[in-house]
Amino acid sequence: MIYRLLALNVDGTILQPNGRIHKTTREAISYVQQKGVYVTLVTARSFPSAKKIARALKIDSLLVTHQGATVSGGKAEEPLSAKKMSGEVTYEVIRFLEGFPCQIRIVHDQFSLANKYKLNHNLLARTVFTTGDPLFYSQQFVDSISETIVNEPVAAPKIEVYFEYEDDLEDASKALQSMFSEISLTRLNSLRLDIIPEGVSKLDGLLTLSDHLGVSLQEMVSIGDGMDDIEMIKACGLGVAMGNAPVEVKKAADWVTRSNTQQGVAYMVREHFRKQHPISFLRKMNIIKN
After folding, report:
1. Do 45 and 131 touch, CB atoms closer than 8 A?
2. Please, which residues have CB within 8 angstroms of residue 152's CB and are 6 or more apart in sequence?
3. Sequence-separated (6 or more) residues with CB below 8 Å from residue 191
């Protein structure tokens, strides 16, 4: 099979635990780009945060961000796709969540708005802002998000919720699913819940990109490590799980590479792309028609 697009998750895949990108990962991405393979990021991060990483990797492509809610970047001035919850739904969801001991965060492409709740769970507290970057991303903390946005509605592409207790996440998830048909829930771990517009997923973002580029899912390789990567891993021509991924993600994959501490992206690229001819050559030989 000829693969024309490489879709990469960010946290736990490209990035090492210290938040850095290993030299071999940079080299691997440059290698497939030289072969004419389209490289994109598919991430839960906001677009500004993902764009910073793409710039470091010299990726100038459309990026799938906010769990697939937004597809934008490259040379396009406007997003190819931008799905958001309505201002009314965003407000009602926030107001409901404020009844739980949790930190709530509206993630927008221009700003982040969070409540001032202080998490007592030390491990969770250290991970709250892994999907944003305070160096360039405007973050505001308020006593009550619902009171802040009641007169200035916000249509959110994503709401992140960091619970203090696992039982609260379970209860909130069940209630939200029964109360709102306009949202989808993605559980990243036992204490973290992402709320996105109904029908949005990383796979949905890849399908938008697929239609735009004329590249089928079977011509794509996707690499990820999270539960929210399973759907796209199953759908792509070659779905790859990182060695540090949960068992469920590995079971969904066609191939399991090394962990992010062992440069799993670079290892996968060496194994699967070294024998593939450049896309330009394949077009010249009429093996690829478009």
Report:
1. yes
2. none
3. 121, 124, 162, 163, 164, 165, 166, 169
CA distance 283 to 263: 31
Closest to 91 measured CA to CA, from 44, 139, 159, 138: 159
Tell me how far the alpha carbon of residue 53 is from its chain's centroid. Answer: 12
Q: Are 62 and 242 in contact (CB under 8 A)?
A: no
How many residues does the structure list for the chain?
A: 290
Strand partners, 73: 62
The pair of three-digit structure tokens given for residue 56, joined into one six-digit string: 């470091």
Calpha distance 210→216 (Å, rounded)? 6
Q: Report which DSSP code applies to 46.
A: -
Query: Average pLDDT of 79-96?
Result: 94
Which residues lie across from 5 on neighbouring strands? Answer: 38, 220
User: Which sign does the torsion angle of CA 44, 138, 79, 104 carry?
Assistant: positive
Instruction: Give me the residues paired with residue 255 across strands.
Output: 240
Q: State both tokens at 232.
A: 């796209």
Number of H helices, E strands in the chain: 11, 14
**Considering the entire predicted model, what is its pTM?**
0.86
Q: How far apart are CA 232 and CA 7, in angstroms?
A: 9
Q: Classify burial at 262, counting beta carbons within 10 Å of its beta carbon; exposed 0-12, middle 13-18, buried 19 or more.
A: middle
For the chain, the average pLDDT equals: 89
